[in-house]
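Dataset card, provenance and construction

Sequences and ligand SMILES were collected as paired inputs. For each pair, a complete structure of the chain with the small molecule in place was predicted and serialized as structure tokens. The example below shows a pair involving coenzyme A. Curators did not alter the output after generation; any descriptive sentences attached to a record were derived from the structure itself.
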Amino acid sequence: MTVQDIPAGLALCTAAGWNQIDPDWRFFLESPNCGACLAEKDGRPAGTVAWIRYPGLSWIAMMLVDPADRGTGIGSQLMKRALDAVHGDPCVGLDATPFGEPLYRRFGMIAHANFLRTRALIDAAHLPPFTGGVRPMTPGDLASVLARDREVFGADRSVLLRSLLARAPESAWIARPAGHPLGYCFGRPGRIFHQLGPLVAEDRAVARDLVAACCSRLDGATLCIDIPTHDSTWTEWLAGTGFAAERPFLRMFRAGDAPGGIPALQYAIAGPEFA
Ligand SMILES: CC(C)(COP(=O)(O)OP(=O)(O)OC[C@H]1O[C@@H](n2cnc3c(N)ncnc32)[C@H](O)[C@@H]1OP(=O)(O)O)[C@@H](O)C(=O)NCCC(=O)NCCS
């Protein structure tokens, strides 16, 4: 797949009700150690898959087949191409929808953790307040954020976080930045909704502050946050703030691979596309 194929990728995303826009596809096609594949049937686009080889974690995403062509083996061929692209890498993962999960299991992926997409229409008049310890992130904060993110995420996703800060500075916030940051978040616009994530914080109070700060700049927008489900207090706080549960994801890794990082400090993922 090349940048000339982005309209085809976007058409497949739109047909499936997915949220990606041009810069999302561009990230896969123009970033180092990333790539994507387009399947064609009878000369027309029929499916896609993409991958990111972060140092320490290879991520498979954008697995999407035209509804008219499903169940004919295209998804399996795309998955094989993606696994070939990351062959030999130490850890390979993806976020599965219920549609994709059986196929991924056949390719040796196993369940690791459950995530939930939550969605809210932001109403600034009813937002929780946030403390003065949170402020907009600047490029000068990136070195400390990227260093902490390598520990908490367990792999080096600097290329993604730099691109998110450039794309959507209004959604990038940092908590108590002196030295070791207590938390940070990034976000991005989309076709249907704005997405907040990743969000990393030392505790729930910092995570709440970061969500409230981000929402303060998104009055009237629809915002999604993809969260782990193991912390019911976090899920309940978001529900009380207006974030309704929308759909599940299953995070899967290749059997035998061991993801690193500190999952308890990851309050929102970057989204199923980007890990
Ligand atoms: C998930 C998805 C990509 C699978 O693509 P697909 O092209 O339908 O996948 P395949 O045809 O290779 O496999 C689907 C099933 O058809 C079966 N199949 C494959 N070739 C077949 C053939 N020639 N005839 C009949 N059945 C066939 C497979 O065994 C498979 O069965 P399984 O689901 O029990 O494993 C597709 O359903 C999709 O785009 N869904 C919506 C988007 C989505 O949720 N993507 C996953 C994101 S994680």
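Derived descriptions for this record:
The pocket of coenzyme A is lined by residues 16, 63-65, 70-76, 96-97, 99-100, 102-103, 106 (CB under 6 Å).
The mean pLDDT is 96.
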